[in-house]
Structure prediction request, 90 residues.
Amino acid sequence: MTAAAASVAVNAGFDPSVRRVRGLLDPAVMPPGGIYQTSVHLSSAWLARREIDSMASIWEEYIALYPSDPRGYQKLAKSLWEKGEPAYGT
Prediction:
């Protein structure tokens, strides 16, 4: 296996891709609109894998960065709905 092929084999999987993308979720690197759109794509990837806790954590991190953006709360509520969490304390 060549060095290039080995690099692709190591870096082309789901987890390495997520790590690379998560590295971009930094306000010093990306504007707010880019962070939102990247978060949408990441949460969609987690949803496709049925890893709802990871999907919700993306939106918790987004809300921590942008607490006045209602889209983060809407997406977090949708994540919790996917998980089956009640929206009220029972």
Summary: The two ends are 56 Å apart (CA to CA). The chain has five helices and no strands. The first helix runs from residue 3 to 11. Helices lie at 3-11, 14-23, 32-48, 52-65, 70-83.
